[in-house]
C-alpha cells in the first residue's frame, strides 16, 4: 500500500515534460485564455432584461470593439516600442494634441478633411521622430524622453485649445461631414451597422502583423529588442529601427485621435488622459515581454478587447470606475508574473 502511494507521488520525467509543455502553451496563449475566460465570466455576470442577456446583445458586442479600437490602435504602436525594450508615455498626450489640432483646423480655420489629416498625421509622426532621435542619438532613456514629451504635447494642446474643449459640429458652417463619416460612421454588414472603428483596428493589426512577420524591418525590431549589441554587430541599423518605431507609435496615436474626436464630437487637451496606461496594459496582457524581443500584435489587440470587455461588464453592473482601475492594475501584475514564469 505504501509502495503504491509512493509511486503516485513520484513525478516521472515524462509527466514533468508533459507538465512543462502544457505550462508553456498556456503562457504563450495567455491572451486567448484571458479573452475566453473574461467573455464567459461576463456572460455569467451580465444583467438579464426581457429574458435576454444584455452582454450578448449584438449592439453591445459591437460597442465593445468600438471602444477597444482607440486603445487597440495605440497598443499596436506600443507593442513595437516595447518589443525594442522601450516605452512611450507620450501617446495619450499625442492623442490630445491631435484631437485638438483637428478640431481647431476644421472649426476655427475652415480646413477641409485632407489637409487637416496631412498636417495632424505629420505632427504626430514628427513627435515620435523626436522621441526616437533623442533616445538614440543623445542616449536618454525612453521613459524620461517620452515622459517629458507627454508634458510638452499636453501643454501645447492646452495652449492651442485655450484650455477649453473645441466642439465639433458637422455639416453647414461646421466641420466637413466627411470627417464624421470617415472616422465615426457605420458599414452595413449582414444587416448589422458595424462601426468603422472596427475596420481601422483590424486594418492596423493586420498591417502591423505582416510587417513584423514577413519583412526585414520586423525581424530587425525583434533582433534589436532581443539583443541590441548582437543586432548592431550583425549589421542591423539599430538607431534607424528605433526612430522608425517611435515615429510609427506616435502616428498611430494620431490616428486613434481622429477616431476619438469624431466619436465624442470634440477635441480637448484632457483627451487621452491615462491612455498610455491602458495601452501598456493591453500589450502586457497580450503577452509581449517588457524585456523586449518577443510579442505579438494580435495578442495586444486581444488585450485591448479584454480591457474593453472588463469596462463594459462593470458598467453594465453599475460598478464604480475606481474598481475598473484596480482590476486593470491587478491584470497587469498577473500578466507580468506569467511572463516571469515563462522566462524561467
From TrEMBL:
Sorted UniProt keywords: Cell inner membrane, Cell membrane, Membrane, Transmembrane, Transmembrane helix, Transport
Matching InterPro entries: ABC_transp_permease
Protein's name according to its UniProt entry: Monosaccharide ABC transporter membrane protein, CUT2 family
Molecular function per GO: transmembrane transporter activity
Protein localization: Cell membrane
Keyword Membrane: yes
Source organism (scientific name): Flexilinea flocculi
Highest taxon of source: Bacteria
Residue stretches spanning the membrane: 32-51, 72-101, 113-134, 155-174, 194-212, 243-263, 283-310
Keyword Glycoprotein carried by entry: no
A Gene Ontology term for the protein's cellular component: plasma membrane
Membrane topology, record value: Multi-pass membrane protein
Pfam families xref list: BPD_transp_2
Amino acid at each position: 500500500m505504501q509502495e503504491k502511494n509512493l509511486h503516485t507521488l513520484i513525478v516521472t520525467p515524462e509527466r514533468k515534460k508533459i507538465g512543462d509543455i502544457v505550462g508553456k502553451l498556456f503562457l504563450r496563449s495567455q491572451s486567448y485564455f484571458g479573452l475566453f475566460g473574461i467573455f464567459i465570466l461576463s456572460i455569467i455576470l451580465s444583467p438579464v432584461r426581457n429574458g435576454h442577456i444584455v452582454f450578448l446583445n449584438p449592439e453591445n458586442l459591437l460597442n465593445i470593439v468600438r471602444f477597444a479600437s482607440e486603445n487597440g490602435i495605440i497598443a499596436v504602436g506600443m507593442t513595437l516600442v516595447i518589443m525594442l525594450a522601450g516605452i512611450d508615455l507620450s501617446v495619450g498626450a499625442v492623442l490630445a494634441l491631435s484631437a485638438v489640432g483637428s478640431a481647431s483646423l476644421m472649426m476655427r480655420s475652415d480646413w477641409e478633411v485632407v489637409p487637416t489629416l496631412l498636417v495632424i498625421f505629420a505632427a504626430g509622426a514628427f513627435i515620435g521622430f523626436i522621441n526616437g532621435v533623442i533616445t538614440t542619438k543623445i542616449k536618454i532613456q525612453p521613459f524620461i524622453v517620452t515622459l517629458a514629451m507627454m508634458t510638452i504635447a499636453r501643454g501645447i494642446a492646452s495652449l492651442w485649445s485655450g484650455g477649453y474643449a473645441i466642439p465639433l459640429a458637422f455639416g453647414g458652417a461646421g466641420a466637413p461631414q466627411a470627417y464624421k463619416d470617415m472616422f465615426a460612421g457605420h458599414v452595413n454588414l449582414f444587416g448589422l451597422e458595424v462601426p468603422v472603428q472596427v475596420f481601422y483596428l483590424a486594418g492596423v493589426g493586420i498591417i502591423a502583423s505582416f510587417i513584423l512577420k514577413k519583412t526585414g524591418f520586423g525581424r530587425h525590431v525583434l533582433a534589436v529588442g532581443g539583443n541590441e549589441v548582437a543586432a548592431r554587430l550583425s549589421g542591423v541599423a539599430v538607431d534607424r529601427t528605433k526612430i522608425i518605431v517611435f515615429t510609427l507609435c506616435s502616428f498611430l496615436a494620431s490616428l486613434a485621435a481622429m477616431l476619438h474626436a469624431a466619436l465624442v464630437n470634440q477635441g480637448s487637451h484632457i483627451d487621452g488622459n491615462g491612455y498610455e496606461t491602458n495601452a501598456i496594459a493591453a500589450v502586457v496582457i497580450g503577452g509581449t515581454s517588457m524585456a523586449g524581443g518577443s510579442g505579438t500584435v494580435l495578442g495586444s489587440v486581444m488585450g485591448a478587447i479584454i480591457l474593453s470587455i472588463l469596462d463594459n461588464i462593470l458598467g453594465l453592473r453599475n460598478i464604480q470606475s475606481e474598481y475598473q482601475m484596480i482590476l486593470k492594475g491587478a491584470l497587469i501584475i498577473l500578466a507580468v508574473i506569467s511572463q516571469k514564469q515563462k522566462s524561467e
